[in-house]
Amino acid sequence: CSPCDIKELLCSSSNIPRSVTFLLLSSLLPLPHIISFLFAPTDKEDMFQNVLSQVAEQFSRAFRINELKTEVTNRLAMLEKRVELEGLKVVEIEKCKNDLKKLRDEMTSRGGGRVGNCPCKYNFSDDGKKLNPRRDVPSYPKYTLSQETIEALKKPTFDVWHWEHNEMLSCLEYMYHDLGLVKEFNMNPITLKRWLLGIQENYRSNPFHNFRHCFCVSQMMYGMINLCNLPEKMTLTDMGILMTAAVCHDLDHPGYNNTYQINARTELAVRYNDISPLENHHCAVAFQILSLPECNIFANVELEAYKQIRQAIITLILATDMARHGEILDSFKHKVDSFDFTNEEHVTCLKMVLIKCCDISNEVRPTEVAEPWVDCLLEEYFMQSDREKTEGLPVAPFMDRDKVTKPTAQIGFIKFVLIPMFETVMKLFPQIEEIMVQPLRDSRDHYEELKQIDDAMTEVGHLFSLNITLSFRVGVNSILNSRQLRK
Length: 487
Hints:
Helices cover about 65% and strands about 0% of the residues. The chain is mainly alpha-helical.
């Protein structure tokens, strides 16, 4: 404002004549003093302006206005620079994401992205944060199992195809309670629920290696424990090791076997140096789940006991690698005739054979239960062989859809793998012959009959094709001869 405006404002607000002398007391000066001036003459405006300038200067000094202004300006400049940099970072991050997506798509389309093959649910470089822990009480319902179901669960004839995931979870929960494992390991029942749910969520939706297969193997283990009266011969800790290894034995299976992992040089094969890459991965995922407080069913076990349980579970899961089949079975054969249940080495070898039996026990079940599993396994094999052909990798004949049939796939496996192993176990537990070994022999005979039928049909088809060819040739020759005679 100009001095005239200020003069007018003061006189108007105070009803004072325009020619009055004002005294201004300034407390902003080092020593208060009186400044007097007369408003009436206009030649005093310069003096008033000077006074106002002095007052403004004193205000600035008192409140450090200039310093504050400079500081605010500097901070504003810094913030603007930071916003600009953050904006550039966001742009760069989005660009990087787009570039990665394009690269991944390109590698997938070429079929050569071997590092990305068989991706796992867990990234082991994430500082241990592998799962989203469930702190709530699991929502799957608690089923009350009928007495009929309870009895059926103990037998290899149990039909695993009639159960939903929630029902299978409840069955597994019942097994742990029934065997006394919850009491033995002082498990929190809610923790057991969370653990089982975590297990189920970390099996993939493969044709064969899925959660139903996990349940199938675990139910067969529960059946063998009851059928062979193992709690009378082994400890409850052994029962817990057998059941937990069965539940965890194929966690996060990618649907492509070890041979593929090694030949394709996948991340798993590189990580585990081509030594049982899948089985090592199953173990790692199992103990990642158990490392979560919400899912640790062994939380109340003493440290030394837990170390032994952990090592035993790892040993059993690694034993499911079929590349070690001959080695493990030969070791058991040398022990079975003089088997000693007080010998820790003997018991460990038996547990390894038991989990192997359960892992490949589908043909022990009734035909209507077992045969769908063959279809599932072949479908998974064919998926792998198709991929191997695309990527230029070796293809196993028993996986090639152009070479294998259901009978040829099963006969050799039953005759040379299943029956010899179960008959060796039968020496120690004769009671399994009728309910487990005999069904294997019947299954072998069933597939041999199917093979004979297939061979006969193939021969008939060959003869039919040959007859058509001969008839065609005879017909052509007749036509040619007829035309020659006409000429």
